[in-house]
Design goal:
980 residues, alpha/beta, five-stranded parallel sheet, 20 strands, flat
Length: 980
């Protein structure tokens, strides 16, 4: 009898709880759902049709029954407002505007979502009106439809309880990752279900799930639905608990009841009394968790990624999907090797407040030790609207609106084709309000917190990259992966598209447009390739995108805004930009100041910490002359650590170093005009290298050639090859030395390789270069590269070009191949730096230009750069052909006696033929690419030129001529089709 009374009490109280929660709670609210999402956000971001194992990863549906992929995903803030729920149980439909703008959280009817998803009050009213008008029809049809339209059984049921942003971020990530791997999921917080029909649908999904995951927090032990989920899956022996911010050792019934330990001292007790349950059932559920110790999955802020990947492997193993396990293991191994561009700085000094502020800007909250760095977090009640975009008209309108607005409305994203701006529509939630760190400042920063984007501003060499690298290492477990993008204007688009390999996106865009008979233009193909990468970053899976050293807000190639490359701000993917620009996209940056005197002194002392007062004064003088620039301080510390020299002697050596007469211009002036002492310090370093290895030190030569490579990491072998090709001062060499060199070549190969490694190690130890996570690569700072360009001899660019032509590889050295093309062809307004002889030019075009253009066009859909590269190459070949033709004509006009002489002019006709045939190959390649962009007229003109050249030299029956004629026939048919 007592048991029956308790059961009835539980049922009654449960029903009461459901009624009370129905009007003021949402089921599954994302931790990162931002108030900056516009109602005009696209309803679906799409997915690759062939990705993984038919994974259905739609990010915008509230309840998705995937007929094609056998996937059922439920994110329930309010099942009553979900169109998919009505399709599931009553075949009813609701207005499209009620669906969530964000895929993870989707309630616009709850008080909580009113605070989190600001700006949807009008939609709330429309939803309520629609509910009242459709309630009766839904009630009549639900009885019969509930039995016939049951949800398909899903692979994984995920149950959680709580509103904390970190919990919701974790659960969203887990669900999205499982879906991406091809496992159908049903994720829900049952305490947010608003009515009995919602509870019935959830229970059917729970009973039909193959495996049940319950994410356990301290609140879960006082939640009746979490206890019911634990008991349900324990009875079926398919429970996998994930302990979130608690450990299995904390989940002991006795400790909870008796309030033992720090966790339960405040939150423990008779938790079953919170919902009127039975103590026996509660104890059985808690004690049952101890029996599920096979997996022991724990999630805390330092292992989110590892926990989620291990959960995927566990589920795939239990479901018998070995291919998923193998794929995840391969991905984990690759990320461990390629995620970060540089190894972590184990002696990172200072920047604690900057790291904490970055965390606050991105997440809207601070956890762990970062809280100690903030002695005051004061809310600012008023916020000015910030326009991000390039539309001046919108900015004027925004300023006009700001006069009427009193700062009481929230901010949402408004997106159009030309701009993205923020406007007010409701009151912002507390965690998204801007905060102020320094109480003595009269004017607060206009940094917007919790929006997922941060900008770090500072002078070159001040330590922006070091700060971002340390932040990435500290918080890497909160993201699936850290994606590092070099921000140099010439390479930023290629660097962004390089993310395709990590995101597993195919960028070879189909040139056929959905419209019948229409071919996509080159611009459309490029935009689609970028959109595919952006879509992967806009899923519920969090990534950290770091754009390091952004040089310009506009792309160098087509002057488009860099903002077009970035995913929508406010999502789960976070973006950090480091730049020397005063402002980026009208966002207030976090200005990186110089290190404190104590931190600078610690960085300069190196290994030796005990110096006399005189030496400390010398270090302070060096610090002042370097302007506390982190790069210079690190080089000083490296010298003092590597050499038996004291600071005063080092200071005297630097002062005695003569100033070089170098002329700086343009961008270089702002970078190095105040770095005279740093230039002298670099001269000291190179003098040390020359003193240690002789006047032709390999380390010095490798540093000299580094200035002409691309901004990415440079392979040591490529650096050494370019260094060996530098011209020697003495041009003549005795015959016996040449013979000795040829004889001992095989014996000295291993020694040369060893010397290359030693030279690179010396550059790293002295702070001139830094090691890379790519084995056999080193990276040079921008200031060092500028210095190397001015210090190097005239033949250095030519040596770099030769090395890249001989050993360059497209998969490994893509950026450096482009750098070589910049030196030779002179893109845009840049002058031609290197002029090659005709044989070398032919070799470079064959090995570098043609493969690079085809690879960029086909693999990355970089149509405009590839076509521009081929156009400039054609011009270079024509320019090299003109003097040869003139010489050949002059030779043919001369008498026979002149032609009998042995002169170099006799070789010109054959060289001219090779040059002309190479030009025909380039023209044919351009014509083929023109077909893929629908430029048939230009393609027809190009291929006719190629046919004329090949017919004149090879004849009409030659295979190459026949192939070109076939291309002409194809273009003619296409032209006829288009014109007809």
């Amino acid at each position: 009898m007592e048991l029956q009374q308790d059961s009835s009490k539980l049922g009654a109280l449960s029903a009461t709880t459901s009624r009370n929660l129905s009007s003021s709670s949402s089921a599954f609210v994302s931790a990162i759902q931002s108030p900056f999402f516009s109602p005009r956000t696209p309803k679906s971001i799409g997915s690759e049709s062939t990705r993984y194992e038919t994974a259905n990863a739609s990010n915008t549906s509230v309840l998705t029954t995937a007929d094609n992929h056998n996937s059922t995903v439920l994110n329930i803030p309010s099942l009553l407002s979900s169109p998919a729920f009505h399709k599931l149980v009553a075949e009813e439909k609701i207005p499209e505007e009620i669906s969530s703008p964000n895929g993870v959280c989707t309630s616009t009817l709850s008080n909580y979502s009113q605070g989190t998803c600001n700006g949807y009050s009008e939609r709330r009213e429309k939803t309520k009106k629609w509910e009242r008008s459709h309630w009766r029809a839904f009630a009549r049809s639900s009885t019969s439809a509930s039995s016939s339209n049951r949800p398909r059984s899903c692979d994984v049921y995920i149950g959680c309880h709580g509103r904390k942003p970190y919990l919701l971020r974790f659960v969203n990530w887990l669900r999205a990752e499982l879906e991406l791997q091809g496992m159908s999921c049903f994720a829900v917080d049952r305490a947010r279900c608003r009515n009995s029909w919602s509870h019935d649908a959830v229970e059917r999904a729970m009973n039909g799930a193959t495996i049940g995951i319950v994410v356990l927090t301290r609140k879960s032990f006082g939640n009746p639905y979490s206890i019911e989920e634990i008991r349900n899956f324990l009875d079926k022996k398919n429970l996998i608990p994930i302990f979130f911010d608690v450990s299995p050792g904390d989940c002991l019934a006795r400790d909870i009841i008796e309030k033992r330990g720090e966790l339960w001292e405040k939150h423990g007790g008779e938790l079953w009394m919170l919902y009127g349950g039975l103590e026996r059932e509660w104890r059985d559920a808690i004690n049952g968790l101890l029996r599920v110790d096979e997996w022991n999955l724990e999630a805390h802020t330092g292992n989110w990624r590892d926990c989620i990947m291990r959960t995927v492997v566990v589920l795939a193993t239990r479901l018998g999907r070995r291919s998923i396990v193998d794929r995840v293991n391969r991905w984990v191994d690759r990320v461990a090797k390629e995620e970060f561009p540089f190894p972590r700085n184990e002696i990172f000094i200072g920047r604690k407040k900057e790291l904490s502020e970055l965390e606050l800007i991105l997440f809207g909250d601070i956890s762990g030790d970062g809280e100690k760095e903030y002695f005051e977090l004061k809310t600012r009640h008023r916020r000015k609207s910030v326009v991000i975009g390039r539309s001046e008209k919108c900015r004027v309108e925004e300023r006009g609106k700001g006069k009427e607005n009193k700062g009481k409305d929230p901010v949402v994203w408004m997106e159009s084709e030309k701009e993205i701006e923020m406007q007010r529509v409701g009151s912002p939630q507390r965690q998204f309000q801007p905060l102020r760190r320094h109480p003595r400042r009269k004017r607060s920063k206009k940094i917007l917190y919790g929006k997922g984007i941060a900008c770090v501003n500072g002078d070159s060499g001040i330590g922006k990259t070091e700060l971002l690298l340390e932040f990435a290492y500290r918080f890497s477990q909160r993201y699936k992966m850290v994606l590092w993008v070099g921000g140099e204007s010439r390479y930023i688009r290629q660097n962004f598209l390089n993310l395709r390999s990590f995101l597993e996106v195919d960028l070879s865009v189909d040139n056929q447009s959905p419209g019948k008979g229409r071919v996509k233009s080159f611009e459309e193909q490029e935009e689609e390739a970028i959109l595919r990468v952006k879509k992967e970053l806009m899923r519920d899976i969090p990534f950290l995108v770091i754009i390091d050293n952004l040089e310009n807000e506009k792309d160098w190639w087509d002057q488009k805004f860099v903002m077009d490359l970035l995913p929508r701000f406010g999502g789960v993917t976070h973006i950090i930009i480091s730049t020397r620009l005063p402002r980026v996209m009208n966002l207030e940056p976090l200005k990186l100041s110089y290190m404190s005197g104590l931190e600078a002194m610690s960085l300069m002392k190196g290994r030796f910490k005990d110096y006399s007062i005189v030496e400390i004064d010398a270090l302070r003088v060096i610090e002042e002359k370097l302007g506390r620039l982190t790069l210079g301080l690190a080089i000083v510390g490296a010298i003092l650590s590597e050499l038996p020299i004291n600071p005063s002697r080092l200071l005297d050596t630097i002062n005695r170093m003569p100033l070089r007469d170098t002329s700086w211009s343009g961008r270089e002036v702002s970078t190095v005009r105040k770095l005279t002492f740093l230039m002298q310090l670099l001269d000291v370093c190179f003098s040390i290298f020359d003193h240690a290895e002789g006047p032709r030190s390999l380390a010095t030569r490798m540093a000299q050639v580094s200035g002409w490579f691309a901004t990415s990491a440079v392979p040591i072998s490529l650096l050494a090859l370019a260094a060996h090709k530098l011209p020697e001062k003495r041009q003549k060499s005795r015959l016996w030395k040449i013979c000795l060199r040829a004889i001992t070549c095989g014996f000295t190969k291993s020694y040369i390789k060893k010397s290359e490694t030693e030279a690179a190690s010396m550059l790293v130890r002295f702070g001139i270069a830094r090691s890379s996570t790519k084995q056999g690569n080193i990276h040079f700072h921008e200031i060092v590269k500028l210095y190397a360009q001015k210090r190097g001899a005239a033949g250095v660019p030519h040596a770099v070009l030769q090395a890249i032509c001989v050993r360059g590889s497209i998969p490994q050295h893509l950026d450096h191949l482009w750098a070589a093309c910049f030196l030779l062809l002179g893109f845009g307004s840049d002058p031609v730096v290197v002029e090659l002889k005709v044989p070398d030019l032919l070799l470079f075009v064959n090995r570098v230009v043609l493969p690079l253009a085809i690879h960029s066009f086909i693999t990355y859909s970089r149509c405009s750069p590839a076509l521009e590269l081929l156009r400039l190459c054609t011009n270079a070949l024509e320019a090299a052909e003109e003097p040869l033709v003139a010489r050949v004509e002059k030779l043919l006009d001369r008498s026979l006696c002149w032609r009998s002489g042995k002169t170099n002019a006799q070789l010109n006709p054959y060289l001219w033929q090779e040059l002309a045939l190479m030009r025909a190959s380039v023209l044919e390649t351009r014509a083929k690419l023109m077909i893929r962009g629908g430029e048939y007229d230009l393609g027809d003109n190009l291929i006719r030129k190629a046919i004329f050249i090949r017919t004149s030299i090879c004849g009409e029956s030659h295979p190459d001529t026949v192939s070109a004629q076939q291309i002409l026939g194809k273009i003619t048919r296409l032209l006829t089709t288009v014109q007809g």
